[in-house]
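CHAIN AND CONFORMATION:

***
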Amino acid sequence: MAFAFCRLYNEFAWAYDRVSHLVSRGEWRRWQQAALPHLRGPRILEAGFGTGDLLSEMRSQGYLCYGVELSPSMLRIAQRKLKRKGVKAPLCQARAQDMPFQDGAFDSLVSTFPSSFILDLRAQREMVRVLALGGRLVVVNEGRLWGRDPWSRFLNWALGVTSGDGSPIQLCEALEGTGLELQEEEERSERSRVRVIVGIKEEEEDGTG
């Protein structure tokens, strides 16, 4: 399953939107949108932006959005999608472990259902580096359907394998060494729940007084 997801994010990226809609029973976009209330702006970076839907939505809400993505297939799809919608958001192909941005360039960094880079220490250091003081790292990494029928149980298993590396507990533990102040939130609907981890880069003390 993990191998299939890797292919879906690369040579079969054209099917990504349809597959994510199917495996989440139509909840995927709502799960992505769970990140929005936790953002602080105006400068937002999305790491691993996929096909660009969240970038488009953030831009429509007035944020100054930028995106970094490793997959060239996803980058091309997102560029075409944003162009069709008339959305302007600078995008670049790069690894999360080596992002071409200045220190403190962004007020928030968002990543929804990130791949294994989110557990990589070098990537975590990069994410903290590009955040301004008081900035926020917002990660959506676990969506679950409420249904107990066999199909929902299978989809939950598939989501656990493919839609984000690490449980919320594992991810929080991995992020503890970043110096971010971590919070875990959960949003619920009639059909599902989604968890959001927020890390706040604390302001430096001025040392006066």
The longest helix spans residues 72-85.
